[in-house]
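The material for today's practical consists of a large collection of protein records. There is nothing in a record beyond a sequence line and a structure line. As an example, a complete record with its sequence and its C-alpha cells follows:
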Amino acid sequence: MKKSELRSLIKEQVKKVLSEADMTRYYDGFIVLDSKNKKTYKFKYIKGSNNVNVENIAIDKLMKATGLSRANFGVHGFVNKGEWNTDKTPIFTEGKLKEAKEYSFTFDYNTDPDDIEYIDNLLKKARVNAYAEQGTFDDEMLVKAGDAIELRKAKKAIEADGFEIN
C-alpha cells in the first residue's frame, strides 16, 4: 500500500471515529449560528445518538422555522458539561421563530407520516427550501416556505411529480 493511500485510509478512519463519538461525555449541547440573522441557539446532545445526526436535525429545525437554506447555519460552539443552565445562549424552541413570514399552499393528499416524508424528500431532491405538514383536514397536505420564490419552486416540483394543486 502506498503512503498516500495509507494516509487517506487513516484520515477516513479518524473522521469516522470523530463523527461517531458520543459528545455527551464532554458537552451538554452545541450552539448553532444563524449567519443571516446573526443569532445563536443552543441544542442538547442526545446520549447514544450520533452527534452529526443530532446536529443535522437541529439545523433542519432552524431551516424549517426560518425558511432559510442550510448554508446559513453551522455548529458554532459547544456547551461544556455541567454548564447547560449557566450558558446564556437562548435555547431553540420552534415557537420562537414563528414571527418570520411564511408562505404556504395546500393540496389534496394523504397525511400519514410516510406521505409527509415523501413530499419532504421530493422537495429536498428538488433543492427547494420548503417543508410539508398535515393540513387542517386528514386529506390535506400543507406546504410552507419562507418566501414566495421557494413556494413557487415547491409547487413546480410537486406538480412535476404528478400532483394537481388548486
Q: What stands out?
A: Residues 21-97 form one domain. The CA atoms of residues 111 and 138 lie 6 Å apart.
